[in-house]
Amino acid sequence: MSNQKSAIVIGAGVAGMAVAIRLAIQGFSVDVYEKNNCPGGKLTAFEKDGFQFDAGPSLFTQPQNLEELFSDAGETLNDYLNYESVPVSCKYFFENGKQINAFANAESFANEAEAVAGEPIQNVLNYLSASQKLYNRIGIIFLNHPINKGKTWLSKNVLRALPAVKFAYLFKSLSQYNSRKFKTHELRQIFNRFATYNGSNPFKAPAMLSLIPHLEMNQGVFYPKAGMVSITNALYSLAKKKGVQFHFNAPVQHIIHTEGIAKGIVINNENKIASLVVSNVDSYFTWQQLVGRLDKVKKIERQERSSSALVFYWGINKRMNELGLHNIFFSKHYKEEFEAIFNHKKISSDPTIYINITSKYDTAHAPAGKENWFVMVNVPAGCDDWELKQQQIKQSIIEKLNRLLQTDIEPLIESETILNPTLIELQTGSYLGALYGASSNTKMAAFKRQPNSGDLRNLYFCGGTVHPGGGIPLCLKSAAITANLIAQDQKKYQHH
Ligand SMILES: Cc1cc2nc3c(=O)[nH]c(=O)nc-3n(C[C@H](O)[C@H](O)[C@H](O)COP(=O)(O)OP(=O)(O)OC[C@H]3O[C@@H](n4cnc5c(N)ncnc54)[C@H](O)[C@@H]3O)c2cc1C
User: Fold this and answer.
1) CA distance 192 to 338
2) Closest CA to 65 of 83, 44, 45
3) What percent of the chain has pLDDT above 90?
4) 352-373 pLDDT, tens per residue?
5) Closest ligand 1 atom to the C-alpha of 463?
6) Which of 316, 351, 438, 445 sits at a 20 to 30 Å CA gap from 206?
């Protein structure tokens, strides 16, 4: 009988595949069980009426997380995935008719902000430099280490970082902070929007989130050739090359555990035993359906969910030169939009609209002379009656786009597919369809996320609902943290 250690990973999302690769590198035989018929979880793509769409994530930052994973596996990312930097990270459209290009180059962006909105150049440059310092001193400690280990908080780096933790970062909201840093409404709104990168409300989330712009505006936005799904394809190919076994159409029913130790899983009413189990499933469903721990379920229920999304995938029968890869049409009443989402579980009648058009970079994603529009608005997690609501929201979107683009959009829509929170929960097992698990609307929220280990011996967690958070960069970091914890635990248990 082989002495090889075995690991089971439940879920083939980005983090599930990344942790599988890292465990294979450590010498585990790894089996990934995925309920869907393909890898990727939220990060997949589909084709309809000659248009190709990325189904979920569209913004790619921090490719260094992928570079590092591939290099740790002895491979070169470029052999699997090519990406290029995007010169304008986002085009912002305001109801007052102003348009601001967020150039990837900080000076160019600051000049644009001054020319269009009248924001002093130095305000933008100072903000981005503070954002960089915050990320480099605090962000990297928090995002690269386990949250529940004393070692993380007792290191020299933490002591060195403490002076950088200003009162404002913890006790002011992002919006209060931005109001002090910027003079103009336009720049405040652009920088408030970064709270939505983890599904939070800028009028409540702590100013600590002001470190997020560093990732986009200093480090840059990138476009993976052939679309975001290439990230899934690259991870899947690497995992297979490293010997990971994938099982699709394989919903795990239960995690076997006795006396506080995870022993394997039940699938098709059959027990599969392994040295350890990693769950890439939403932590709510891991505890509720797979482990059966009501105390944990109740704790998660008390944490406010991040926002969800309503997405219209439109095949547009025209090319619009005024649009770029990422475009934002801001709500006129931004605060009300978030109050509607988080306080009233409703959608504002004037929602901020995000449009992503990959055919700007990959012409093969749309027929000649046409474009593939991924049109998204933030909506509350949960809620039902989407059939009715989505038609009302579609009308608000069309009216706003017609107004700001001076056009008539409706006759140009020749193909439509819709994704709503109910479908997100159904397709990717995400509790209430929240995009990023719990929101970061309180200063303690980041510390209350599900840790990567520690509840049951030999059960580990990775993915967007656990530490350090949602989104592709953080999911890749969560896989690295989890794999490191496993390596340390293996050493510890060997010595006992
Ligand atoms: C519309 C949308 C837009 C987004 N935009 C961005 C963006 O621009 N940039 C960004 O970085 N992030 C974005 N995100 C968030 C990002 O997609 C997620 O944070 C990330 O993909 C989550 O990855 P994960 O590893 O947690 O796994 P998930 O993608 O959540 O996958 C979990 C997997 O587990 C499987 N599973 C569940 N239960 C079981 C079971 N019992 N047995 C077996 N398998 C099971 C599911 O089928 C799924 O495949 C967006 C998400 C959505 C939906």
Assistant:
1) 11
2) 83
3) 87
4) 999 999 999 999 999 999 999 9
5) 26
6) 351
Asked if residue 58 has its Cβ within 6 Å of ligand 1, the reply is: yes
Q: How far apart, in Å, do the first and last CA atoms of the chain sit?
A: 23
Query: CA dist 339 to 93, 172, 173, 175, 380, Å?
Result: 22, 18, 14, 13, 10
Tell me if the domain spanning 6-43+64-69+226-303+437-495 has CATH number 3.40.50.150. no
Name the average pLDDT for the chain. Answer: 94
Atom of ligand 1 minimally distant from the CA of 16? 25
**C-alpha 41 to ligand 1 mean position (Å):** 5
User: How are beta strands 308-316 and 371-379 bridged, if at all?
Assistant: antiparallel
Tell me which amino acid residue 78 is: N
- Kindly report whether the peptide bond that precedes residue 120 is cis, defined as omega within 30 degrees of 0: no
pTM of this prediction exceeds 0.70: yes
Q: How crowded is the C-beta side of 406, counted as CA atoms within 13 Å? A: 2
Give tens-digit pLDDT for 386-403: 988 999 999 999 999 999
* Architecture of the domain spanning 114-219: Orthogonal Bundle (1.10)
CB 433 near ligand 1, within 6 Å: no
Share of the chain above pLDDT 70, in %: 96
Q: How far is CA 179 from the centre of its chain?
A: 26
Ligand 1 centre distance from Cα of residue 61 (Å): 16
Can you tell me which residue has the tokens 């929240």? 434
Q: What burial class does residue 396 get, using C-beta atoms within 10 Å of its C-beta: 0-12 exposed, 13-18 middle, 19+ buried?
A: middle
Ligand 1 pocket, 470 CB below 6 A?
yes
Bridge partners of residue 92, in order along the sequence: 100, 328
CA distance 451 to 462: 9
Q: Where in the chain is the domain with CATH 3.50.50.60?
A: 6-43+64-69+226-303+437-495
Nearest CA to ligand 1 atom 5: 57
Residue span(s) of the chain under CATH 1.10.405 come to 114-219
Ligand 1 atom closest to the CA of 465, numbered from 1: 26
d(CA 261, CA 277): 10
Atom number in ligand 1 closest to CA 433: 53
Q: Using the mean position of ligand 1's atoms as its centre, give its distance from the Cα of residue 309 in Å.
A: 13
Q: How far apart are CA 290 and CA 106, in angstroms?
A: 47
- 475 Cβ closer than 6 Å to some ligand 1 atom: yes
Q: Whose CA is nearest to atom 47 of ligand 1?
A: 428
d(CA 231, CA 14): 8
Q: Is the CB of 11 under 6 A from ligand 1?
A: yes
Radius of gyration of the chain from Cα atoms? Answer: 22
Answer whether 472 contacts ligand 1 (Cβ < 6 A). yes
CA–CA separation, 267 and 270 (whole Å): 5
Q: Is 332 helix (H, G, I), strand (E, B) or coil?
A: coil
Ligand 1: does its nearest atom lie under 6 Å from the Cβ of 435? yes
Helix (H, G, I), strand (E, B) or coil at 435: coil
